[in-house]
Fold these 2 entries.
Entry 1:
Amino acid sequence: MAHPSSAHPNVTTALLEALHFAATKHSDQRRKDKEASPYINHPIRVAQLLASEGGVTDLDLLRAAILHDTVEDTETTPEEIERHFGPEVQRIVAEVTDDKSLPKGDRKRLQVEHAPHLSIQAKQLKIADKTANVQNITTSPPDGWSLERKRDYLDWADQVVAGCRGSNPALEAVYDQVMAEGRQALAATAH
Ligand code: ZN
């Protein structure tokens, strides 16, 4: 398969190839919300936030957003991403992929520690990812999550995003708005 770069003339084809790849890889996965919505909704939302809210036109970043959970959550290997989408997309996906051999607490701590050292592309991807997750957790929460668990997630997301700021002010403003609305929604359920 060809490796369309950012300069590739056919942006539509390049995006659709990433969508098809991710949809196939995530096809048997569901989100943790009550409706068990298709997993692919999440990476599509993250890429859409980058483009619509963050004004991102960088094709490698948009493809990395669509693919961002394939290595972490499916059998996909980094080599496979590189073979299909090139080294730049692979590099961005690798930057936002947790090491699943580590305990969850360590992975969460490392996300906070690594955030300031990420590339400007990975920082934007992280902000969009956390925006989508905060929105999900506060509007269609995972089944069985307590108020405390939701609040902990929001606090942790704020710490990760703090290390990513300065990469895309428009996207950061949307994150801040979603977070403010999310905290209000949680406060309303607490009373
Ligand atoms: Zn994600």
Note: The mean pLDDT is 94.
Entry 2:
Amino acid sequence: MKDKISKSGIEQLRKECLSEIESVTTSQEELEKIRIKYFGRKGKFKQMFEVLKEIPLNEKKIYGELLNSVVAELKLKLEGKLKELSVKKVKEKNELSILELTLPGMKFSIGRVHPLQKVYDEIIDVFLRLGFDIKYGPEIEFEDYNFTMLNIPYDHPARDMQDTLYLDLPVTKNGKLLLRTHTSPVQIRVLLSEKPPIKSIMPGRVYRHENLDATHLFNFHQVEGLVVDKGIRLSDLKGVLTYFVKSIFGQDIKCRFRQSYFPFTEPSLEMDICCLVCKGEGCGVCKNSGYVEVLGCGMVHPQVLYNVGLGYEEYTGFAFGLGVERIAMLKYRIDDIRLFYENDIRFINMF
Ligand code: FA5
């Protein structure tokens, strides 16, 4: 009988039980099975206590104390593990409650295409349909490309510090560096790098030293157009630009060409459309003229062709430049250009 109980046997059972308790990571049921296996009515420790009854009193005392302390230690471990598992379970439940799948979904607000971008894309699309390609130029430009080669004289007021934002950088062989005041210098870049036939649009951002008001920004967008080939005539310009305004403002829109002046075109014109607000009757928007300006245009000045080394007797061309914000204002009847840059989602959602 004595063989049935020993210090090493108790120690071995202790270690065995301990490692089984430690190995449980999730299930409380598993822990319950361990409790029954070791401490239940027919459990392994219960059996050891049964053996105690059959050994001499002096040994009973020694093994009894040892068994009691081991059982107390293991029961504590078991309780600790049970607590640990239930804390883990509550934590998991809380984490799950963040993902409450029965709650109604949150409305996810997706962005919208900005009205300016819409108009920009529409404008580009019209010219792509007409077979134009797209060219881009830098926003930091040489003074020569922005002015001189475009036949803008040295004493022209546009060159003034009051109108142009010059950069505080060393002067280059092509003059001072500045933030381009229009997209027309891209005409020069295209003409210097390609031989006619040329049929390009050149969209981009431009900068002017302007005071902000309802129709003026100091940083806005233009789309330039340039067609150069043999035999290009004013009627080509009129045809292309009439097609353009009808595509943007509708087939019924009335338009007209007015004589104007740009140093880089001759003759120079401005194109107007019939006022969309008063339908030509005369109102505050059109300053009672019945028409509003949409773009500047003209036949490329022979001096510009000469400046880029093209024979002006052989080639002719037309060019135009429009303000994207102003077209968007007309199209959507917006009376203050600054609204485009306020980033008010209520305004953007209107389009
Ligand atoms: C020019 O910039 C010429 N380069 C256009 C051109 C190109 C003419 C090729 C002939 C041939 P203008 O300064 O008028 O022209 O500007 C063109 C357009 O830009 C205007 O019709 C207007 O729509 C827009 N614009 C001009 N200034 C501003 C401003 N401060 N804020 C917003 N839009 C402007």
Note: The radius of gyration is 43 Å.
